[in-house]
């Protein structure tokens, strides 16, 4: 136990209270470690605001969620009505509801941008692997949270979207039908589903989410933030042991982030007050029709933030499975011929490849679609071990690496667009190409990330004073 | 960054031609609803009158309370005298007396609730729900092949008869046979215009005005708070605009000394 401290003589009541608390709880210590003496690189650019903004949106979603829960009825007979009740009869209910529904989309926008920042500046590289892993887990939780939350308004798109996605689980071999029954709590999406999704959306997932966010930040503050140069600021310290290129988070980044928050809120309010439906992307038009289990809408599309993955699911046809099998066979052949493995390892690779190809053909393409969709998210977790480039930041990578990132982002957006559209032959070919590009980007990263002439990385960050 | 943008544009050039043509579901194109009616209280009130007189006998608007009409300038007294059924109270929601089961027997489908109809009928790339409703109410025509004797261009094979026919009168739709654009061996009908059979109580211009009022009301009823929302939104943006300015200067003031 630390020595009991005493406030200096003649100190004010506030100072004495703080000393009293500090003797019992590390309040000042925590404040210093995470705010006043947390040194962040001073060369952050605009890409570095999205983490704070994600926190802001999280808090906003929780607060608005609390008020929505006061008036919402998780009952298949009353859910749709209760949402309209919130929109009409609850004072300021429309504002709280729109904040929550627009907030869901805003959350994904800032999180996608936050992830992209990590991607281009190599923020996932050693020693920040755990920061990235916690982040990926947050993203996964966020998807679960959004998916289950979307059922609650009990509109047609809520209902049929949930029906389609839960049915996907039934494609899992052997346990599929039981698994989807367990998720639904019924043979079709119904009152039981609504109640359990409500429970998960309001309690279970947010609890996990908050825990993960805490872990994400603790891990970040342990290793320190990366920066656009990918230079470790801890390598250059001044006489007092503080990083020369670092700057205390408070007040410098707090004022900086408050500015970012104001700009964000301005854009957020533009949507919230003048286009809360987001052109049919944030609130789908069909969702203003109450769920009807007897009437399937002609076109079921998930909300925009899921559409890239939904596209990959739809792209996985029998043809796509054949292409994957061929790619797998070629990869195995290359590994055996050019990999420089010993004979037993070569045999193991050959056997594994044959088994994998056999499995690909043994199960339905629908199942592999689910696997592809899941793998598209899970592959993010191994990114720190896929990237072998000698530098972290895109700034010091060969120029053509930028084109690779651009193609990747472009196809991700195209996949997103196609996932919101009804299926079409041309669209399906494009999504198949997009799926291959998406996975190729990650799976070939151990090779392409090492190629090319890298630029020399400076010892200190590049910073121009404002 | 420039390279990034450039390469996105280049790839765009390759892939866009492969993407499916703009998802136009086809069908009769929608006219655009005169949006200025949304700020015209007289139009909204007239719309409410047409709605309660013509629509509410078969359709409900269960999430809409009569006294919410205060927002478009009607008093409790006016609502009670002009819009309420004898048994309703001013705080009630807009219910219908039509039994949904009977309705299903008569029309083949239960008339949908109209509380949020204007919001639900929007279609990406085609128009807003108000555009759709405005078109729907101006494209009814006589069709003896249908059980109700009515058909509609915006909603082919509609189960609802033309509830406003006394206002518009009866019209016939003229079609010509043309070769199918995609398959010259087939012929399709193309709509060329309406022909008035019997006159209605209103002429065409007056009828369009009346329908515009009705649709304005339906659009308003879909989200009664929409006027408040926009009004508050302007204030919020002014406030946030100032906040952006202040926080920008604040941030600059702190960062000026960082070298």
Low-confidence stretches of chain A: none
Provide the succession of SSEs of chain A: HHEHHHHHHHEHHHHHHHHH
Shape of chain B: globular
Strand order, biggest sheet of chain B? 1-2
Strand content of chain B: 5-15%
Which structural class fits the helix and strand makeup of chain B?
A: alpha+beta
The total count of helices of chain B amounts to 9
The counted number of beta strands of chain A is 2
In short:
With 466 residues, chain A is mostly helical. Chain A has helices spanning 13-22, 27-36, 50-71, 79-88, 93-121, 129-151, 156-169, 176-184, 191-223, 249-274, 307-315, 318-338, 343-362, 365-378, 383-386, 400-420, 425-443, 445-448, and strands at residues 39-41, 246-248. The two termini of chain A are 45 Å apart.
How would you describe the overall organization of this protein?
By secondary structure, chain A is mostly helical. Chain A is built from 18 helices and two strands. Chain A is globular, with a radius of gyration of 25 Å. The mean pLDDT of chain A is 94. With 259 residues, chain B is α+β, with helices and mostly antiparallel strands. Chain B has nine helices and six strands. In chain B, α2 (41-55) packs across α8 and α6 runs antiparallel to α8. Chain B is globular and about 80 Å long. The two termini of chain B are 25 Å apart. Chains A and B meet through α4, α5, α10, α16 and α17 of A and α1, β1 and α9 of B.
Q: Mind sketching the topology for me?
A:
The complex is a heterodimer of chains A (466) and B (259).
Chain A: H1 13-22, H2 27-36, E1 39-41, H3 50-71, H4 79-88, H5 93-121, H6 129-151, H7 156-169, H8 176-184, H9 191-223, E2 246-248, H10 249-274, H11 307-315, H12 318-338, H13 343-362, H14 365-378, H15 383-386, H16 400-420, H17 425-443, H18 445-448
Antiparallel strand pairs in A: 1-2
Helix pairs in contact in A: 3-5, 4-5, 5-6, 5-10, 6-7, 6-9, 7-8, 11-14, 11-16, 11-17, 12-13, 16-17
Chain B: H1 2-15, H2 41-55, E1 61-65, H3 76-82, E2 93-94, H4 100-107, H5 117-120, H6 129-136, E3 140-142, E4 150-152, H7 165-168, E5 169-179, E6 187-199, H8 204-222, H9 226-255
Antiparallel strand pairs in B: 1-2, 3-4, 5-6
Helix pairs in contact in B: 2-8, 6-8
